[in-house]
Amino acid sequence: MIKYSKILFIIFLCSSSSLAYEIALARVFSISLWYHFAFMIISIAMLGIGASGTVMSLYPKLRNLSNTGIYCLMLGLGISLGYLITNQIPFDPVKLSWSKIQILYIGVYYIALSIPFFFTGMVVAAAFSSLSERAGLIYGADLLGAGTGAISILYIMTVYGPDKSVFFISLIAFSAAFFAGGKRLKALSLILILFTASMMFFNPYFMNLKMSPYKGLQIALRYPGAEHLKTYFSPFSRVDTFKSPAVRYAPGLSLKYLEELPEQVGFSIDGSEMNAITAYSNRASLTFLRYLPSALPYEVFRRNDVLILDPKGGLQSITAKYYGSSNIYKIENNPLLVKVVRKDFDEFSGRIYSGNTWSGLGRSWLKYSDRDFDVIDIPMTGTVPSGSFGISEDYRFTVEAFKEYLSHLKMEGVLSINMFILPPLRTELRILNTAVRAIRDMGVKNRDIEKHFAAIRSLESICILMKKSPFTADDIEAIKKFSKDRRFDLIYYPGIKEDETNIYIRTPLNEYFTMFKNILNPETHEQFINSYIFDIKPVSDENPFFHYYLKLKNIRAIYKTMGGKWQYFIEEGYILPVVFIQVLLLGIVLMILPAVKTPKTRNKVKNKVKNKVEKKENLNLTSGINLLPYFAFLGLGFMFVEVSLVHKMILPLENPSYALATVLTSILISSGAGSLASYKFRKLSSPALTIFISILTISYSILLPSITDIISPCPLPIKAISVFFIFLPLGFLMGIPFPTGLKLLGEKNKPLIPWAWTINGCMSVLAPILTIMLALVTGFKIVLWLGALAYLMAFVFLKQFIKNQLYNAQR
Fold it and tell me: What is the mean pLDDT of residues 117-135?
């Protein structure tokens, strides 16, 4: 029998390795497949954790703590082998349309990758079942381990990259097995530790992460003469640099330009977001810049003070420099990219990131800047057109963001947004619509809004201009001349006539002119938006899902519009409802299975001693079942709150990964501390605590905007530390209700503990998906309130359980 002091340390190690593995897998999926398949990790984790409680409910022998060492060993093996197996499987979502075996591969993915989570669940559930009276200590060790894993994996991935990090994580699990086992298990664990470490040192080819052959980087490298240069890692992204004939980066280049482009070096972010660094050798080699639609604001308007948001490879920075801008400011949200360009391509690129450069979110920088600009330039173009993940937040293009941009323009300043044309029209229409809402909110009357917009297009890209003041007659003439000289088509300017449009690059319906006209006309604005096949309504900071265009009521029409190809829905990130249904069905099965084991089945045990124990369990089989919904609502409430807070912190911390790491670490570590404190200070385990958590959650939802405004001007380290401490009180309290319930359940009916673990685990993994689906419609503030409601419901069930206990005791 393992001492409970040792089991706490073992649980800490297992939970740490499990959560680190989950985060590493999300990065692996982002690189090897696509971002939206990282959502599979949620259902994979649930399959493992939920199944552990279900299996333990059905097979009571597995609750014995003497099995812990074996579980730890299997956890370590599962982490390494799961990665190696799935890395060799040729699963690719692109092939789903013609290769039915891909469905089988998905099943293998689920089974192979869920094994580590299963054995982590077995370790924790066995401890809860055997030591329910010390549930506070066990849950505290579990959460503290998870919090440590969440923060430590960031450093591990910086050093080793996500693929090798998987093997480093397995070393932690093998260490847990070493501490938990006897002599034989210790020896086996030590052998596996040495073997894994040697694998990391020698780095055999089969350990290297395989990337889908359909990702942009792999396609570019298949061109004749292509050469991969170097790979760079950070905890949040992977940057690859390469040379390839596929790299010809001049978005929307006029057909009138017939000369060669200067040398360009391509780069990809996570293998898919493609861009290029252009050589800045001499002015003559950069003549092609004058033939890009994105040159319009520099050709026509004042350009002394320029701000470029997310310049990536720096083409717009070079454009501003080419046109003689005096002050060029750059804000790039990927710090790794800035580091790569500065380190290896500084002279090649013309030192685009050498001065006046910051990393972060442009609008956050603007909020606390007193500078105004002649041009604010937002390029949305890579080397190849690509969509964005529909259910990812994008705070760059909310109504509040556009207000920030427009407020930092000089009186005659212009905001320029350039993007590839990706039919059917969605992105450009939402950009326009969101800008219209912003400029209206800033006091421009409906009848005058159209005077502040202009747009042109080439064969493959579009340039939309927004001006703080109305476009003048001279502005309009200059735009018309610029377009005519380069054979670009006019889309819109104040007073445009239809016969001035759709001249050089003709479309059958001239839909750009028609749609822009309908959005900018106050009489047709609302009707057009409501009747359009896609959702192009403006988005706000409360639900910043700019790239989510799906109207569920039009799903059949959208399916037909996209040529009857359901792959479109996956590519746009609309996989979330599918994952939700999948997780829901899986969760229902796992939660119902423990109820299948009836008293009759149990009484077939032949061993007399075991038979007595089983009969005792049968007598109390229904006792405590009315407390199980309490664990369901705790799972929902905890994750509603945690996930919403993560998303609410993306804007002040300026990066989704920073927000995830900071909030997860704060909530998990403080919850672990709260759980440990509840074991020592029993008064903390009052049922009324869940009411206080509800009130505090609602208070946070109301106060957070003001709090984030206070910390936003601070440097990133100060902001991260502030966020960490801001959520400590709430996290501390959220760690108490679960061990409180387990202790009560253990006193009444210990065999139900694995079932409670299953229910809580299933609801905890279902809740993050539900959080995003609800936030798409209602916003994260409402989801926080639903989290508060879930804690209130937990209070109701806990109070009823205690009331029943008192009533039974008095009988």
Answer: 89
DSSP character string of 574-613 = TTHHHHHHHHHHHHHHHHHHHHH--HHHHTT---HHHHHH
Instruction: Report the distance separating Cα 504 and Cα 488, nearest Å.
Output: 7
Predicted pLDDT at 604 = 46
Contacts 24+ apart (CB under 8 A), 588-596: 590/50, 590/51, 590/53, 590/54, 590/758, 590/762, 591/50, 591/54, 591/755, 591/758, 591/759, 591/762, 593/54, 593/57, 593/58, 594/53, 594/54, 594/57, 594/58, 594/754, 594/755, 594/758, 596/58
The least confident of 236-240, 491-495, 591-595, 804-808 is 804-808
Residue given tokens 């479309």 in the structure block: 507
Distance CA 276, CA 293 (A): 18
Within 275-424, residue ranges assigned H as helices are 296-300, 315-322, 335-344, 362-367, 399-407
Entry field: residues in the chain = 811
Distance between CA 291 and CA 300 in Å, rounded? 13
For 368-400, the pLDDT digits (tens) are 889 999 999 999 865 444 444 446 788 999 999
Residue 629 has pLDDT above 70, yes or no: yes
Q: Which of 113, 87, 21, 77 is nearest to 193 (CA)?
A: 77
| 223-251 tens-digit pLDDT | 999 999 999 988 888 999 999 998 989 99
Q: What end-to-end distance do the CA atoms of the chain give, in Å?
A: 38
As a whole number of angstroms, the distance between CA 753 and CA 750 comes to 6
Tokens of 89: 């499987």
Please choose, from the candidates 393, 361, 358, the residue with its C-alpha nearest in 3D space to the C-alpha of residue 378.
361
- pTM value? 0.86
Strands 273-278 and 227-233, by their bridges, are unpaired
CB atoms within 10 A of CB 338: 18
